[in-house]
Design brief:
115 residues, mainly alpha, 1 helix, 98% helix
Length: 115
Amino acid sequence: VKWLRAQFRYADILERVAPLRAEVDALEKAGKASKDKLGELSGAIDELEAKIAGYKQEYATLISEAQALKTEMHVVKDRVQRSTSLLQSLMGERDRWQRQTDAFGEQIATLVGDV
C-alpha cells in the first residue's frame, strides 16, 4: 500500500513538474536566443564605436585644417592690408611727383623769360 501511494504521489508530482520543465526549456531557449541577439548587438555596437572613433579622428583633422586656414587667412588679410596701405602711399607719392614734374615744366617754360 505504501508503495502504491508513493507511485501515485510520484505520478502527481510528475504531472505538476511537467509544465514547469516545459517552461524551463522555453526559458532556456529564450535565454539562448537572447544571448545570440546580445552577441549580434555587441558586434554592431563595436562596429559603430569604431566608426564613431574614425569620425572623431576625421573631425579633429578637419578642425585642425580649419584652424590652419583661419590662421593663414589672417596672415593673408594682414598682408593685403599692408599692401593696400603701401599702394595708397605710393599713389600719393606719384601724385606729388606728378605735381612737381608739372611745376618743373612750368618753371622751365618761364625760365627763358626770367633770364
